[in-house]
């Protein structure tokens, strides 16, 4: 039995702190703890099953500022409540505690505002750049193929379709976030809490797997 397990493509819904907390809690219950994290893969190592719970929070400081006043206050609050830092990726801080530890009471509106500011600087511009590049490549290849260019071959139409597929995927990811943030702002203003994007994330993962498989198939064709 392998002592390593991966959570794939977390970046596509990285804004959804509720799903992150739920996924990590489930993994801990199954006997897995985080070993390393990145934009596309989170690596877990085998450990004893536990009923640990997690708390994810986005700070509003620059990535390079590892000791900001905001971060110090947050970590002090967590330590007093029986929490300890599990890991940090960019501006996302994840804390862990026993199941009976005191819940961390941080205003949902503040958490959402920090997420909005972070996504505005990273998720939105990065996704927009990728979307524009894919549409541009699709346009170039489509013009060659449908214009009967002498430089067109069988792979031209595949490049066109693949980039249309990729653009649809990236566009769906961006629109999903925009709908989520808009809906959540309204829900939190009415006294609600974060809504998980678990079902949406599963759809995006299926689309991503299809995109990767299609890309590999074209390269091997």
What is the fold's blueprint, element by element?
Elements: E1 4-8, H1 17-29, E2 32-37, E3 41-46, E4 53-58, H2 69-80, E5 84-89, E6 92-97, H3 108-121, H4 123-146, H5 154-189, H6 198-220
Antiparallel strand pairs: 1-3, 2-3, 4-6, 5-6
Helix pairs in contact: 3-4, 3-5, 4-5, 5-6
Can you give me a brief rundown of this structure?
This protein is an alpha+beta fold and 221 residues long. It has helices spanning 17-29, 69-80, 108-121, 123-146, 154-189, 198-220, and strands at 4-8, 32-37, 41-46, 53-58, 84-89, 92-97.
Features:
three-stranded antiparallel sheet, 221 residues, 6 strands, single chain, elongated, 6 helices, alpha+beta
- Order of SSEs, N→C? EHEEEHEEHHHH
Question: Quick check: average pLDDT?
Answer: 85
Beta-strand share of residues: 15-25%
Outline the low-pLDDT stretches: none
Give the helix proportion (percent range).
55-70%
Radius of gyration: 21 Å
* Coarse shape: elongated
Q: How many individual helices?
A: 6
Distance between the termini: 35 Å
Total DSSP E strands: 6
Helix and strand composition category: alpha+beta
Strand order of the largest sheet: 1-3-2
Oligomer: single chain
User: What does the main sheet amount to?
Assistant: 3 strands, antiparallel
